[in-house]
Amino acid sequence: MLDHIIKFSIKNKIIIGLMTLLLIIWGAWSATKLPIDAVPDITNNQVQIFTSCPTLAGQEVEQLVTFPIEQSIATVPKIEEIRSISRFGLSVITVVFDDDVDIYFARQLIGERLKEAVDQIPQGIGKPELAPVSTGLGEVYQYIIHPKKGSEKKYNAKDLRTMQDWIVARQLYGTPGIAEVNSFGGELKQYEVAVDPNRLKAMNITIPELFTALEKNNQNTGGAYIDKKPNAYFIRGIGLATSLEDVRNIAIRKSGAIPIYVKDVADVRFGHAVRYGALTYNGEVDAVGGVVMMLKGENSNEVVNRVKEKLPTIQKSLPDDVVIEPYLDRTDLVGRAISTVEKNLIEGALIVIFVLVLFLGNLRAGLIVASAIPLALLFALGLMNVFGVSANLMSLGAIDFGLIVDGAVIVVEATLHHLGLRKSTEKLTQAEMDHEVFESASKIRTSAAFGEIIILIVYIPILTLVGVEGKMFRPMAQTVGFAIFGALILSLTYIPMMCALFLPKKHSDKKTLSDRMIAGLQRIYEPLLQKAIRFKYLIVSLTVAIFALSALFFKNMGGEFIPQLQEGDYAFHCILPQGSSLSQSIETSMQASRIIKEFDEVKMVVGKTGAAEVPTDPMPPEATDIMVVLKPQKEWKSGRSYEELGSAILEKLEVIPGVFFEKNQPIQMRFNELMTGIRQDVAVKIFGENIDSLAAYANVVAAQIQSVQGATSPQVERVSGLPQINIVYDRTRIANYGLTIQDVNDVVSTAFAGRSTGQIYENERRFDLVVRLDTTHRNSIDDVRNLMIPTDTGTQIPLSQVAAIDYKLGPAQISREAGKRRIVIGFNVAGRDVQTVVKDIQQQLAANVKLPAGYYFTYGGQFENLQKASSRLLIAVPVSLLLIFMLLYFTFHSFKQATLIFTAIPMSAIGGVFALMLRGMPFSISAGIGFIALFGVAVLNGIVLIGTFNQLKKEGVDDIFQRVKEGTLTRLRPVLMTATVASLGFLPMAISTSAGAEVQKPLATVVIGGLVTATFLTLFVLPLLYIIFNSKLNMKRSRGAKTFVTVLVFLFMALGSEVFGQERIAVTEAVETALKNNRQVQINQAEIVGAGFNVKTATEIPKTGIFAENEDYRPTDKAGLLKIGITQSIAWPGLYTARKAYFKEQLKYANLNTDVLKTAITKDVRTAYFQLWYLQDRQKLYMELDSIYTAMFKATELRFRTGDVAALDKIAAEAKLKELQAQLVQNKKDIIIQQQQLMMLLDRNEWMLPLDQPLEKIVVDASPSDETAHPLLVLQQQNVNIASSNVSVQKNTNKPEFSGRFFSQRVWGAKDPLSGFSVSASFPVFSLGAYKSKVKAANAEMEVQQRKLEYDTQVFQTNKGNALAEIDKNSALLQFYESSGLKQADAIIKAASLGYRTGEINFAELSQFLSQAIGIRQNYLEVLNQYNQSAIQYNYFNNK
């Protein structure tokens, strides 16, 4: 097929030319339509639920809001995790869904459940709302609104905030792709009725009265209309307050004849809502800002450009001296990242073209190959557009033109080589040229096509990645796949056509620079190869040893998830002591901003303190995010690097006392927080119930983390220490005054938090009308105590009369995850990789921190992602290796040669590992992808070389050494060329320092380092292995061979034991496997086939006889009369029918036997599986006891040395320990026996283990079943049917048989031959008795089978009853163990161990207690095992 394609392309040059033109147009058009971003959006699928409840403390928020919502959404399908934060006035719940769930469907499900939750939240506390449909990359554009210099006094924070809410945000809404515009900072304008309590008291007016008056005197109404011809007059009652004056003149009530107005008891003015957050600009001014949130799945570049298009219009609608200034603009980062990609791609392409021209020695050939680069890229861009892959660092970053042109290089080089072999110096005609190109291209085309296909296949496992790493790396695999697929098509169509058209048609003997270079390299290479052949076993053994060494290094190399992308800006997280006020936070953050602004590299500093009104990032008032926007690096004069600048800023910030600063980057910080709810790279989470205990353990853990090298100073989540003024009501006094707690609460919340009584409209704008105490009367605890509460008698009493009011520290924030309370200790990793740091911390915590029951650790953040990604790659990489091996096998149809080429993979890995080590890089997922790409290229060179050796063998070169010499020298150019092109194509990436290079560096480093060793392998080790594999030398005599084989076997065993552990398998999976693979099933299938053929023999007719007889033979007549004829006998026709029925019954028996086998195999597998599971649990119990007895033995030994106990105790302890260890060994042997039994049943040559969880109790279905339907009894019933049909057969054998014959003879002298026939019938005359006996015997056999059926049914019912009785017997015991026995055993072990350690009991007593407790646990396991085995039997009898 490939030959036809090449032939068609060479013949139809114009068609291929037009197709190429179409490709260029399609690719260029697609490039303009591609969505562009800096990195793929890796945020998980999440819905956030906010509930603002300004009057509630953290505990009440958790109890009354968070918990009911969590409960109602817990059963929504496809949820990955639910986490929440409850703090003063705010509940934020984050629900993470599986990636395949549509976000709008997820929001709809959550919305439906929220309706249920609202009913459970007390009235008036707060209404849950869903956050905007955005992601971690959603904050695409952030700006601030501030007055120009000189106008700072002209506008206050209220004016700026009103401009943001009613001018800027409103015009931005409706921009396609925007989910939300979040306002931040400033003061939210309100019409404030500031009550003076003294005037209230003097006028004897209560706050509820004032509240009601304002509510009732601020409304419009309508009275339909009056029909007065010719007009209709609509009635409109206008009572809405529209100004401060209107509010002041609202009457509260009449005192005698004089009305009391609002202005008499309160100051009506413009106020602002209680602030939970603020924004500062350059440390100078309290500013107002906005965050534009992008809709999930939109193109950030386009969205930001749309926003920018609207800004000039918006700017015109603002006062002249107020400006909108962006401080975080995603397009800057996108531009930088894409320019990095462009630079790397262009540099890579230029290097590749230079190398090609240099190696091919022919400018035209070099340009033909180079022209495949832009075409393949255009093809990739076209498919990226079709499949919706965005252009970003990851998708375009891995394109290596060296890889892409490999196929083209192979074809062009082969064509040049082929043309060079021609002796004629005449110029070729076009037809001859076409033929020559076809000859050379078709010869090498499998190598070219398979090479590209192998690189394609290598990328398939990356497509299997899911989660964060899937979103990060799948676009890369897709893009590279598209480009290589394009290159594959081009190398079979466009390249041969261009070669035929443009390569020189006249052969020149003149040596080019390339020829001289290759000849020089061949002169160096040839003697080296000869020497290598002499020491082949030594070189191969050394290579294997180096591989083993690199595998060891790799095992100890650290790991990180994805190298961090330099965003070009910084984000500093600044945290003040718990309970710091908002004004203090603003002051501190402004001080920090001023320090940061002193750095010359800093363009502007924006501080975001606390949370916005839509709390997508719910920070407490004491926390501030300081965004540091830097100038472009080329404008930096200090010569500092990005990292050094960050450290220098941190150092300068240390002058601010008592404040914790943490360095991060804006997008990275947002990603980390949204993905895992944590801002740092790694988090240790402690789960438990009591907030104070969690806080105490968190401080202990933080101290441990502090001591680990590489971990930055840990930040403990602030869960307690929030200063509160607690009002504790005295119920008796409240009752005495005729009050209710709700009455008092309403007054308190109105007075201090403020309550809205309605709204004031200024044209379209609307502002809340709020009642609260005057600022002078809400400054201290005394104001709370002196708050006047109206009683039912009309008098007013101070709040202190009915409540105790005091300062107290309370919980600041309650975090929950998966329905449990938790605390987080977060830290970043500096100077080391994540994996080793976490490992060290895990060891420290295991050794030094003991948590009580119900409390436990988990690890989150980047570490979590690395674990998941690594486990997936552990599956994906072996699969890709297997695919490569299969392809190699299909290419060469030789297991030996496929293995030979496959050795390229481990050898190329050597270079990759050492390259990472040389550059001091840990293993990251980027590097893993590099290894995958490297394997493809490494194999490619092997294919070319072995393909050449095979070609030479076909051409008659039988001497293996001659074959190797010729083949390697011929292929030296393409091998060096593909390796150089591929590795140098990645060079710009490996040494790049611009934005985004950190992600590409590990990938490029691995490929370049690996190709160095892979090329050495192809040129030296591969030919040596080829000789070893194919030589006729006797391996036994060769000591070198022995060494080599031993080393190889040892190495693969060592690696194998690491890679292939024992597989864990579920019982259902085991049963399914057994039903497919078990040998008995295969035997049964063969029996069914045999019985089927037997049915066809039922109508067998006896053989036809041919006879010749001489009838008239006399002494006088020696000739006689010759007679020739045929004879045929036939049975009674009924016999055939009976026999057919008999064989059909036997076929049915074989078919029914399948069901019997299935039930028996299912029972056997379950029995073996649960027995193995029981042994596994017993092993765990023994291991646990081993640790207890070891500890006891050590304690006894110590006490024996100190003279506390007698030698007998020590001997007894040692004997106990030894006995237990012997039981452990015995149990292991039992496990192996049981595993072998399971392997035999499943017909799998692999060690298997049950699931790694406690032994389960089998569910018994005691519903009555139809006993006769059990396969065993059905099969016996079939035996009765067979015996019955046999009676019919025997009866029919007693019937007559028929025979006939036909003959012909010629009589001498007679003209015609004489013919005749005879027919006869045979009757059982003398054997009639024997026949009758046969029928009786058949009847007797039927009777036997019938009785056997009855007996089997009886036995079956008895066994079933016994199994049920066994279940009942064990069930009662189990109930005891499960309800109390096991708990008592644990209690005995703990108490006895403690008692012995403290010296309260001696070893004999301890031993007695332990024996009792262990006996309980062993008995429980034993009883559970017996119960399960009985249940398996019972389910078997029940056919379940």
Could you explain how this protein is built, in words?
- A hairpin with a 2-residue loop joins strand 29 (813-817) and strand 30.
- The radius of gyration is 45 Å and the shape is globular.
- Mean pLDDT is 83; it is low at 1032-1061.
- Helix 20 (536-556) packs parallel to helix 36.
- The longest helix has 71 residues, at 1328-1398.
- The protein is of the alpha+beta class and 1440 residues long.
Chain-averaged pLDDT = 83
Instruction: Tell me how many strands there are.
Output: 38
Helical proportion, percent range: 55-70%
What count of helical segments does DSSP give? 43
| Alpha-beta classification | alpha+beta
* Residue runs with pLDDT of under 50 for 5 or more positions: 1032-1061
Cα Rg: 45 Å
Distance between the termini: 54 Å
* Largest sheet, strands/sense/barrel: 9 strands, antiparallel
Shape: globular
Strand content: 15-25%
